[in-house]
Structure formats: structure tokens, C-alpha cells
């Protein structure tokens, strides 16, 4: 599907027809919303926390180039080898060459959305390297030969019965059970064997600290820790926006992230990686690499308004609260990042010619804006992208690719009518007399009446009523 | 959250009324009811006949120059320093929150910002500034309230309309299970993504039916068009009504 436009409408229509899927998402999102609400029951605390979180991210972005240089310096001093990748192809190639250098046949990976962006698994498999997802959700999705449907809970689209069936189909030693503890235990046994055998462990990065050269990784299962400490080589991959200035900037993010994401006060594991195994230490990898990926981010960064996109800490709260995501689920977006953040991030990374329809998959209800712990003006940015899609010459890749002369004419006509009181008067009169006679088969009305009756124009406008009742004009 | 500071606004003698294009075309009675509610509080209401639309349809579709043109045509209609009352959270939100962005860098930016700062959503104004006390003259009825997204999240209007409904002695207000969830209208969204929109309004209708209410009251005509349209299509016997009209009906006997 190289450069063809991705059809969100078709995929979402299909998803809507899957009753089970809709029930799974509704239930899961309702649960996540109420768990989050409990965490932030104290409104004053919530407002203070997110103000702090937003300021940490804003400050980091304001100094981004400088902090990235600093990060490279401190990481290098700590013995972490830093690699820069402008594109996903470059990042994949870097990772492959590190793996070849380590004679790796098997790699284990803790959850990382950036590597989803890179389609790293498929790439490595094409080069004869087995790669195993170790986060339980990711493992399930991988077994299912599918992709994550949520950035925090990759297998949220499946229920226990579906997972049990999948395990029975794909894992030899699986027993006939739908007991969650037994299923988890089975996955753990499979994964343990792989941790011990893998030559390379891959991970994402939640926050990288420029001051100290520390890579922070939060997780709940301990598999991330296994991936980053057991294999002899650890490769961390991050988008270039993940850096913060000082260690003190980390706690606000670590507090907002799990509370927003899953409604947990803290995560089970917080890993802070500051280099390979040092002489005399008993464990840890002997090599640590950090791959810093751009993939369009510096373009996003260059625009003062779009830059806010990069504040994201990938908590997923916006998707949990998005009424569209809740109905169609993550796969309909056909992108590594679904939901509201996906609607602004993916078109900027992949271009509007391919993704220009995505910013329209939104009612602009602002539920995401209300919930985002770092106050990203998501709806404002997608408004900007809608505008970029229809006007050539903008700064976003593919600007103007959805320009349509017919649509532009319609809006021009609309503006001419609505900006002139005389024209408006004539138009409203005409609509009131003719509008109700319009057949439902007309475009737009057809879509509207698929679920609703046709709206009826009132015989007399408010303008006329007000004049009749003697309401003063000025 | 975004409510203007009521203490800074003395009770005015005169207010402007901005009816919005949807009210003008589809719900003029509701628009009139809003005017009469304000008049009943002893205010002089001015309705500039030159008004049309806040520009939101074009703005949200990415056609900002056209939105600007229409918004700009509204500015000279509100020259006096009176509050501008809008019977729609969505249009009020467009004017109050988005006009400053829309006019950024334009020669008339300062004027647009000043006008935006005087915009109020109707129920917000009735409760916060006028502190109305309503006397119910109607028969007992059970109603439910649909919260518009822009009223709640752009104008910070959440409790005001419900507070008004609760003042009515014979009205039983049953809240929706998912009161704060979008009904799926979203302007062009409803026709660009008719299936998703239908799923959303379908759930909203189910939620409304589950309350056993005879009427669903809302402060936004976009939502009302969507919800009443779906109620009728599904033959659900619940009537939808704009809050201004409902309040007027109850208080005028
Ligand atoms: S946009 Fe905000 S809410 Fe959404 S994932 Fe990013 S930080 Fe979380």
C-alpha cells in the first residue's frame, strides 16, 4: 500500500459491523475511563499535575536540539552508543547491522511503538532474524499475525475467549482453559525460554534524560526489564522528541503516564538505564545502543503550531476517551498510532496525500483535549491539518493534495452568501421554501438520512420572527 | 473551566442576541424563546438583522479564509459594549474561543478579540450573570439533558443548564448515563462518516430511551437536529427540544 491513500472510512465501516469488537472496545474504554477518573478525582491536583507535565514537555521542546546534543554526549560518556536515523529505513538498517555484529539469530522486544512505526519485525524477519514480542499484549498480537490496536493495550480488541482460542491454535503445549492466570503462565513459560536464548534485547524509551544520559522505561510485567538486562546486547529505540532536560523532569511524567493510561497510581516497573554492565557488576548487557529516530519529526518541530504534537507522552488517554476510537477500534486507523494522537501525528509523518482523510475522522468534541495530561491542543492541530489538506503551499507533507475546485467553489459561494446580509436574506428565504422539497437521495442528504429523518426548514426564519415581534435591530 | 468571570460583569440593561444560522433556519421558535427569556428578566434585547453565521462550518472544514470573511461581516453588528448572548454552545465557543485565532494578525484582530470576550452561551448568562429564578407553571414531566461538546468543553458550561432545569418544580431531571459523550453530529462529520456518526447517535438514542424521559432537552441545535432526527428515524417516542423553548414553555404557563 506504498503511497495509496489509506481508506479509514471503509475500514471503520467494517469494524462497526463486528458486534463482538464493538462490545470489547466499549467495555474496555468504559473501564479505563472510570479507572482514570478515580486517579484524578481531585480536580485541583489534576490541574496542577498537568500544568507541570505540560511545562516539562514544553521546556524540553523549546530546547530540543540542544537537549539532543546533550543526550548524545551524556549517553556516550555512560558507554551507550548513540545512532541517528533520519528515516525508518535508516533506523532498520542500523539495528540490523548491530544485530549482525552480535551474530544475533533471535531478538526479544519489550513494547515499543516506534518500532511499529518502522515495521521492524517484518524487516528483521526478512533478514532471517527471529524477533519475539515479550509484552503479553504484543505477544498475543504477534501470535495473531496482527498489529496493536491501542498504544498501551495492544490486544485490547480481543477478549479472553478469543485469546484462549488463539493460544490453543498457536502454542503446542496450550491446555484447554480460559483461565487468565493459566493463560498468562503459559505465555510466561514460552517467553522465559526466549529471554535466555536471545542475543539482543530491544526496547522503547519513555523518557530520555539529557542531563544524565538515562533511559527511562516504564512497564507492568517485568518483561521489559528482562529484555534490557538478560541478552548481551540491548538496543533502545526512541523518537527524537522523547528527551527531557533533567532527572527532576521525570517524576511528573511517570506520575501522569500510568494514571492517564490505565488508571494505575504507578507502574510496576520503572527501569532507568544508564549504560552497559560495568566491571564488577553481575548483570546487565555488555553493549547498549540508542537509536534516535526522526521520521518526519523535525519537520513537525519546525512549525510552531504543529510542534505541540511532539509533546505527547503516549499515554493513550486520548484514544480511551475518543468516541470515534471507542466505536471503531484501533485497527481501522491502519497506523501505528490510532485515535486522536494518531489523527494528528500520522498525517504529518506519512503525508496528507496518503492520510489527509484522517483529520476528518473526528467530530471535534474535544474529549481528547480535555483529557490529555500534557495539554496538547489536538483538535486545534487537526483543524490546521484540515486546512493544509486543501491548500497548497503549506508546511505539511502533501499540503493541498485534497484540494478540490468544486469544494473550494462551494465554500466561496457560502462565504459570499453569509457575509452579505442581503444575499443571506434571499438564500434563507429560498431554503425555507425549496429546502423541504429536496429529495433525500441528494448527496449529503442521503448520508444524513441513512440514520435520521430529513431536517425541516422552518417556514419563517428567526430574522423574520424577530422583526415581526419588534425586536430592535440596533 | 472557561466561564467568563461573572463578578466582572455587572447586570446589563441591554444585550445583543446572536441567533446562529441553524437556529435561524431550523429552530427560530427556540431562538425567539431565548430572546423572550432575556426580556422577561427586564433586559432590552437587540437582534442585529445583519447577522448570519459565526463561520464555524468553513473553519472546521479547513476553509479559514472563508470563515474569516463571514466572521468579519459580523463584527460591525456588535459595536456597543453589551454582552452577546448565543443560544448555542457550539457557536458561542466558535466566537469566544476561535475568533481570536481566526483573526490573528489581521488588522481587525483587536476588535474581534474584544467582541469574542463579550460572548456568552445563553444558559450560562441566565445563571451566572442574571441569577434567574424560574417559576414552573407546567404539568409534571420527566426530562433528560444532552450536553453539547462545545458548550461543555469550550464554554465550560456543564452545570448551568441542569441548574435551570432543577429550578422547575414539576420537572424531574434524569441524567444520561453518558451525558458527556458526543452525539456524533460534528458538522460535516455526520455526512463524511455517516456510519460512525450513526453508531454514535444510535448509542445516544439508546441512552435517552433508557431514562424513560418524555423529552430530551439540549442547548445546541446541531445536536438537536442529529438526535431528534435519529429518534424519529428509530420511532422512539421522545421529543427533543431546545432548552430556551422548554424553559419558556414552562414559565409562561
Ligand atoms: S496526545 Fe495526550 S492523551 Fe494522547 S497519548 Fe499523547 S499525551 Fe496521551
Automatic annotation (TrEMBL), chain A:
Positions in coiled-coil regions: none
Residue ranges occupied by any 4Fe-4S ferredoxin-type domain in the UniProt entry: 303-332, 354-382
InterPro entries (UniProt xref): 4Fe4S_Fe-S-bd, 4Fe4S_Fe_S_CS, FTHF_cligase-like_sf, Helical_ferredxn, LUD_dom, LutB/LldF, LutB_C, NagB/RpiA_transferase-like
Entry's Gene Ontology BP terms: lactate metabolic process
Keyword tags: 4Fe-4S, Electron transport, Iron, Iron-sulfur, Metal-binding, Repeat, Transport
UniProt-recorded Gene Ontology molecular function terms: 4 iron, 4 sulfur cluster binding; metal ion binding
NCBIfam families according to UniProt: LutB/LldF family L-lactate oxidation iron-sulfur protein (TIGR00273)
The name this protein goes by in its record: Iron-sulfur cluster-binding protein
Organism in which the protein naturally occurs: Azospirillum thermophilum
Automatic annotation (TrEMBL), chain B:
Stated name of the protein: Oxidoreductase
Cysteine-rich domain boundaries: 15-96, 143-227
Organism: Azospirillum thermophilum
Pfam families: CCG
UniProt GO MF annotations: oxidoreductase activity
GO CC annotation, single: cytosol
PANTHER family: LACTATE UTILIZATION PROTEIN A, UNCHARACTERIZED PROTEIN YKGE
Amino acid at each position: 500500500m506504498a503511497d495509496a491513500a489509506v481508506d479509514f472510512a471503509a475500514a471503520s465501516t467494517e469494524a462497526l459491523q463486528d458486534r463482538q469488537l464493538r462490545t470489547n472496545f466499549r467495555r474496555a474504554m468504559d473501564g479505563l475511563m472510570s479507572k482514570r477518573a478515580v486517579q484524578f478525582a481531585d480536580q485541583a491536583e489534576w490541574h496542577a499535575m498537568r500544568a507541570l507535565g505540560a511545562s516539562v514537555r514544553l521546556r524540553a521542546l523549546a530546547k530540543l536540539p540542544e537537549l539532543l546534543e546533550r543526550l548524545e554526549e551524556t549517553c556516550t560518556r555512560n558507554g551507550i552508543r548513540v545512532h541517528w536515523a533520519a528515516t525508518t529505513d535508516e533506523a532498520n538498517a542500523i539495528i540490523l547491522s548491530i544485530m549482525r555484529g552480535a551474530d544475533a539469530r533471535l531478538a526479544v522486544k519489550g513494547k515499543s511503538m516506534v518500532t511499529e512505526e518502522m515495521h521492524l519485525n517484518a524487516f528483521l524477519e526478512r533478514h532471517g532474524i527471529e524477533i519475539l514480542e515479550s509484552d503479553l499484549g504484543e505477544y498475543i498480537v504477534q501470535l495473531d499475525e496482527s498489529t496493536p490496536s491501542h498504544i498501551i493495550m495492544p490486544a485490547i480488541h480481543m477478549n479472553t475467549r478469543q485469546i484462549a482460542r488463539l493460544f490453543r491454535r498457536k502454542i503446542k503445549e496450550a491446555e484447554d482453559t480460559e483461565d487468565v492466570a493459566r493463560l498468562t503462565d503459559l505465555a510466561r513459560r514460552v517467553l522465559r525460554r526466549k529471554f535466555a536464548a536471545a542475543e539482543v534485547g530491544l526496547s522503547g524509551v519513555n523518557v530520555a534524560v539529557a542531563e544524565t544520559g538515562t533511559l527511562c522505561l516504564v512497564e507492568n510485567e517485568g518483561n521489559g526489564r528482562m529484555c534490557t538486562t538478560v541478552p548481551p546486547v540491548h538496543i533502545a529505540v526512541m523518537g527524537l522528541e522523547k528527551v527531557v532536560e533533567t532527572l527532576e523532569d521525570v517524576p511528573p511524567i511517570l506520575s501522569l503516564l500510568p494514571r492517564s493510561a490505565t488508571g494505575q497510581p504507578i507502574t510496576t516497573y520503572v527501569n532507568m538505564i544508564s549504560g552497559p554492565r560495568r566491571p564488577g557488576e553481575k548483570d546487565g548487557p555488555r553493549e547498549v545502543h540508542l537509536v534516535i529516530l526522526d521520521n518526519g519529526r523535525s519537520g513537525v518541530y519546525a512549525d510552531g503550531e504543529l510542534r505541540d504534537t511532539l509533546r505527547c507522552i503516549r499515554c493513550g488517554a486520548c484514544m480511551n476517551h475518543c468516541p470515534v476510537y471507542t466505536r471503531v477500534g484501533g485497527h481501522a486507523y491502519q497506523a501505528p498510532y490510532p485515535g486522536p494522537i494518531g489523527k494528528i501525528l500520522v498525517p504529518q509523518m506519512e503525508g496528507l496525500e496518503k492520510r489527509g482523510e484522517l483529520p476528518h475522522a473526528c467530530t471535534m468534541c474535544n474529549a481528547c483535549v480535555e483529557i490529555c495530561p500534557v495539554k496538547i491542543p489536538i483538535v486545534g492541530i487537526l483543524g490546521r491539518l484540515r486546512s493544509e489538506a486543501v491548500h497548497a503551499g503549506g508546511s505539511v507533507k502533501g499540503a493541498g493534495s485534497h484540494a478540490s475546485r468544486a469544494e473550494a467553489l462551494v465554500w466561496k459561494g457560502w462565504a459570499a452568501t453569509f457575509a452579505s446580509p442581503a444575499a443571506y436574506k434571499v438564500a434563507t428565504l429560498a431554503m425555507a421554501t425549496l429546502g423541504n422539497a429536496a429529495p433525500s437521495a441528494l448527496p449529503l442528504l442521503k448520508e444524513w438520512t441513512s440514520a435520521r429523518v430529513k431536517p425541516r426548514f422552518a417556514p419563517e426564519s428567526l430574522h423574520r420572527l424577530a422583526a415581526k415581534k419588534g425586536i430592535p435591530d440596533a | 473551566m472557561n466561564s467568563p468571570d461573572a463578578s466582572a460583569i455587572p447586570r446589563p440593561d441591554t444585550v445583543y442576541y446572536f441567533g446562529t444560522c441553524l437556529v435561524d433556519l431550523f429552530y427560530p421558535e427556540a431562538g425567539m424563546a431565548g430572546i423572550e427569556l432575556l426580556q422577561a428578566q427586564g433586559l432590552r434585547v437587540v437582534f442585529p438583522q445583519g447577522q448570519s453565521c459565526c463561520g464555524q462550518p468553513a473553519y472546521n472544514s479547513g476553509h479559514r479564509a472563508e470563515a474569516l470573511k463571514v466572521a468579519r461581516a459580523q463584527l460591525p453588528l456588535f459595536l456597543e459594549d453589551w454582552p452577546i448572548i448565543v443560544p448555542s454552545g457550539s457557536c458561542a465557543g466558535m466566537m469566544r474561543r476561535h475568533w481570536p485565532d481566526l483573526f490573528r494578525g489581521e488588522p481587525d484582530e483587536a476588535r474581534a478579540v474584544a467582541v469574542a470576550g463579550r460572548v456568552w452561551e445563553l444558559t450560562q448568562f441566565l445563571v451566572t450573570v442574571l441569577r434567574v429564578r424560574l417559576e414552573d407553571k407546567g404539568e409534571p414531566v420527566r426530562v433528560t439533558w444532552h450536553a453539547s461538546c462545545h458548550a461543555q468543553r469550550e464554554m465550560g458550561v456543564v452545570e448551568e443548564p441542569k441548574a435551570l432545569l432543577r429550578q422547575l418544580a414539576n420537572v424531574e431531571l434524569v441524567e444520561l448515563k453518558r451525558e458527556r459523550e458526543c452525539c456524533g453530529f460534528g458538522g460535516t462529520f455526520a455526512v463524511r462518516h455517516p456510519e460512525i456518526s450513526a453508531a454514535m447517535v444510535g448509542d445516544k438514542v439508546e441512552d435517552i430511551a433508557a431514562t424513560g424521559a418524555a423529552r430530551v432537552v439540549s442547548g445546541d441545535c446541531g445536536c438537536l437536529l442529529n438526535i431528534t432526527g435519529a429518534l424519529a428515524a428509530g420511532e422512539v417516542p421522545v421529543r427533543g427540544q431546545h432548552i430556551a423553548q422548554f424553559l419558556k414553555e414552562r414559565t409562561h404557563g
